[in-house]
Amino acid sequence: MTSIENNLKDIVLNVKVPHIIKGLNIPWPAFKSSFQEWCAQFDNFLTSEEILRGGIDFETGNRKHSNIPQWEKFRGEKKMTVKEFYERSAKGSDFFVDNWATYGYKNIKEMPYECAEGFDFGYFGFSEVKDDITFWLSSTDAHTPCHFDTYGCNIVVQVYGRKSWMLFPPNTKLTPTRIPYEESSVYCKETFFSPEDVTSYKDVEGDCYTYVLDPGDVLVVPPKWWHYVENVCPSLSVNAWIPIESDVETQIEECIVRILMKNFIEHGKPNDFLDILNPNEIDLSEDKYNLFDILQYLVDQKSNAGSSPKHKNSYLSENELSALLVNFNEQIIPVPKISKEEFRNILNQRIKRFDPAISDNSTLSTESNIKYHLINAVCSPSIINEIKTDFLMKMNKRTS
């Protein structure tokens, strides 16, 4: 590992606030071709069946929405070739006048090898990260609702196009919700895509950090930071979640949540899982794994934390980290925190997307629904943390 790779690794694992890395000249083949060329290359590897069906399945959403986050359950599908996606979304024509589309949250293995060639996070000091890389191909206004990742720290590389990030510290007074439930993500009830008004966001307006990533920019997101991500124009980005030692604690928490969620589903109405689970978690309703065996495995992993292959983080002092950052001559900068007025201006622009005619038809969407409130009360991060702490204390007494 080179000294630059070592330094970047230390920075990624030790920064306490999000940082931008600029001007690295990352030696990935994708940076040597245009976005259009990359899309055309992707299409060269579509199967004959995919071509006959009109392309691959893009998830789609509306460019207007209600004041409820545009969860995945609201999304549709549209078949397109990647070339069609690029040409139509770049012009904002046809389907893209009123809609956005994404072929994202996909593992790098789902990308043709020639398109994925060279996406190597060893450049940042993490050579072991090879297959666990995710790519996001999306149009203007495609976005991910505000959430925090329960595991690891996040490195994001913007390859083509531009993407806007809003980030909030872990202790920000956002309203966590486990509906929709997705293992490894905690969403919040607030929407930053189509808010109805600005006044509802007074508790968080002084905690927002923003940045628009350009091609070649790298974003480092420390553990548990909330983030809302939206495409400014058609773009491609790739990211990797770097596993850290504290992940086993969170894995125990997430396993406890999963046990609870499974029980809520099994003791509810037949189709409750459609409203409770994010679409990528539908299999939980048929999950045959013994979650208590998994929990025991995780407890054992915690006991053997010294042999964990995960990275230790926060091991540099503030002075050591500052000295390291100075070596990069302002190539690495913290994401700026914006003023309350700037935050309100952003939301006032997005209010134009609010459409009161769009409603959530799920039985769990109403504020009066008892199951909605019980799930969020029982599975709130603070309560789960207390359960985990008490559970581990009792397990330690049992084994001592």
Automatic annotation (TrEMBL):
Cellular localization per UniProt: Cytoplasm
Matching InterPro entries: Cupin_8, JmjC_dom
Domain JmjC: 97-259
Coiled-coil ranges per UniProt: none
Swiss-Prot/TrEMBL keywords: Cytoplasm
PROSITE patterns to which the protein is assigned, alphabetical: JMJC (PS51184)
GO annotation, cellular component aspect: cytoplasm
Chief localisation class: cytoplasm
Source organism superkingdom: Eukaryota
Pfam families registered for this protein in UniProt: Cupin_8 (PF13621)
Cell inner membrane in keyword set: no
Function: May play a role in cellular stress response.
Protein name per Swiss-Prot or TrEMBL: JmjC domain-containing protein
Source organism per UniProt: Hermetia illucens (Black soldier fly)
